[in-house]
Amino acid sequence: MSATTNNTPSAKRQVLILDDEPIVCKRLKPAFQRAGYEVETFTEGQAALARVEEKKFDLIVTDLKMEGLDGLQFLGRVKEVNPKTDFIVITGFATLETAKESFRKGAYDFLAKPFKLSDLMDIVRRLERERLGGGTS
Amino acid sequence: MTSLIGNVKDLIRKWNPRRNGVPFSALYREFQNILDRNSRVLELMADLNDKMNGEYIFDRTYIHTSCKQLTDQVFNLISELRILGRETHLELFIAFDRIQREIQEELSGQQAIQGEVLTWSLEEMSRDTEDEVGAKNANLGEARNLLGLLTPDGFAITAKAYREFIKHNGLDEFISRRLSDIPENDDKALARTAREIHERIMSAKAPKALSKALRRACRRLARRRGIKPQDLVLAVRSSALAEDYETSFAGQYKTILNVQPEGLFEAYREVVASAYHPSGLGYRLKRYPEQPQAIMAVGVQTLVEASVSGAVVSLDPTDPAMETMLVSATWGPGASLVEARQEPDHYRLTRWPPFQVILSQIADKAVRLKISPGQAVTWADNPPERRTIPCLDAAQLEQLARAALQVERYYKRPQEIEWAFDQEGRLVILQIRPSSKPLPPMDFEQIERASLGAQAIFSGKGMVAQRGVASGKVFLLQTEEDMERFPFGAILVTRSTSPRLARLMPRAQGIITDVGSPTGHMAAIAREFRVPTLVNTGVATGLLKDGQEVTLDAVHRVVYQGRIKELARFEMTEEDVFEDSQEYRLLQRVMKKITPLNLIDPEARNFTPSGCKTLHDISRYIHETAVGDIIDMSRSQRLSHGTFSRQLKTNLPLGLTIVDINGGCIVDAGPIVEPSDLCCIPLLDLLEGMEKSELWTTEPISVGFGTLLSSFTQTASANAAAVRGAGRNLAVISKEYLNLSLRLGYHYTMVDTYLSGNIKDNYIFLRFLGGVADMRLRSRRARFVADVLERFDFRIEIHGDLVVGRLKKFPEDKMREKMRLLGALIAYARQLDARMDSDSRRDWYLQDFLEKINHLMEVQDERHDQQHPVG
Asked: What are phi and psi of B648, to 5 degrees?
């Protein structure tokens, strides 16, 4: 019923959102805050990459097709730095190929834009259940 | 774009579809293509419409791609119509071209006409005109035009006017040069430059066009008020283009009272110059280094003869509980000026009805502003007996509180509102801006505690029509008469969505319904007013009690017991308001060129290509035209190669022409067929529903005054019309497929369905339209039809008296049940509009119909169970 699990850990979970359309960041931010996350948003891939090098994130939500940086490359790089970071890929150019490629690179899930906010948050809750234990998967 | 029309002309010249010998089945395939594409167009429109409720995350790319897809599809649709040999489709291309260009203009952000005007009247202002009239003017326009609050009459002097004024005086270059010359962190130089620019503006001259525009705007304003232009008394206020200038420098930009038309330009100049106050300029240089010039639009209002004036802050951020609002008030006009000299009365009120006054501090108000036309504004003493009594009574405070909450709910931010009560005691809103004191950011744990501690009455049910959070007392609306009693600030709970609820929107905090569609008409109105709305919950009227306090979370689809103020407050602390985002507003604007339906009645005069104002109009025109053509062609000799057009003989006067494209009739069927000769399953079920429901002849007249005589004459005229229109009734069939175009009297029904054992292919698409009675009765009938269809799982859209229903992927037996339902519904509804003279009747007919077909469906179910023991 509410957007979080009951056993909120003392430290907030960290999420990074990367999408070159500011509106996507603006709208996802409060939803993740509401779900108990510390949120950082980026509209440029390079800046996000630099941030990932210095800080560990539990979750990254990223677009695939952006100016200057390919989302899949980004995904690959982050997995090198911190293999434990989970990824949810959101893209407006969803094809079976991009979906498969995302999963191959280790994405947790894949959503085609536009999507319902509640669909994304359902995925996030499922992910939390699996990672925080007590979940079935 | 002229080349588009040219190409089209070429195509038409080369194409001659009315060739002899084209088999009907080939033409029919083309017809089918048109239908398919038409459905795709409607799907795309519905998809776009879905994005308006706030549940979806979409971006600019999505709007662009969807518009492209949609315009491409409509273009192809028009091209395909030529196969049927229409000669009017050049006009359709012209209409299309115009609409497409309008959409393109919106997408590229150039609204050509808007940007050329020097003044705007208040009734044309909204958030969409903000780039021209400035934030405060835009807010005031919406308060008046949308929220229905009373504001002074007036007009805006636009951003265009500002640019002209600056250019005319050679100030553009002067200002940029002087600004770029200011060394960083040199406050003295900044102050010097600010003063210099201020002086230059104060001695600038009016461009001719501006003087003319101001005179004209004043003349119009005076005419509306029934006075001479020279008798106008005006207030001139700033309305900068970027709202944060206004909030951060509230009070620095000038407001000039008691201005007469001949002094308007001087006052305008003074307001524009007030942007060059050193601290405002310093802020802009830091915040917008690339564009520190303040583009200043200005508001001109008729001066309100205020008996009392003041300000209200809808949520006091210094109140730790965040439960109160603040009002300040002083005698006479010009509260903001007066407050600089003497303390006003202060009130603190609760934020919900009945707005209890928690604190009132009554000041000694020695003076007031005195405004006499043609004279300087002066101070006057208040009479001794008025000095220490409160300026406002309880009723006035309540009125203020309501207005403040209404504005706050709409903008989803605490608001500061300047107001006055005029000599007649009416509340007039003078100025609206977001509160300059931001709310402290919400701690997630706070919200979490609040929502975990709260009891959810139901959750995860229904569909969001407008996202948002609302608290209030439940008002259970059962009859139309209840609407009169609907209290301000309540949560409207009712069985079904209905556009008639629009009347309550300004008063409602939130809306919850049992049934209804987020794409329907009411949902669209709820979005206009931004009332949080959850539809189709199935349970609301059952679980919620009249008078119960609840919190509706139409983001996460939960209804909580009690008032959970943290949830609503969280929404107000979100960095951005979705409804104010560029993307939402862009979508809203392009949708105006896409979805509204102007072409309703095929018999009406405007049912022409040039009558098409939106893409929806074009698709509807094409569909209607294509059906008419295919009927004509099925009749014509030369197209009947290999196809028989047959007449169906039934007990009902349907006048139905049957065109069998593949196995819809028995092999040796003659030119006249009976139902027993048909193999088309959907048609057979539909006919069964029509006949066996016995609703065709059953007169549903047991309520009210439906006398035998009137029903007799109605039936007679409807039948006469049926004979006249008999030629238009067509069923194109195969064993699994039915495309039915039926005109009974003045009612049009179109059903397109595929029904087979393969669940994935099954669908029904239908349109119900028209009727003899007036538009109000017809729309009531449309809502009745929609109510019925929604109960039977159809996805519904209503446009006036047109009902569009869709349903997909149901198993065969369920699909057959729906076809029987449709048959019964067509029979029942075909002349209902003349009788539905109130909404309560509509409910009665709904019950009546459901009872009657219930019996029919049960019987049918048994039969089916025997026929298909395994699903």
From this structure: -95, 130
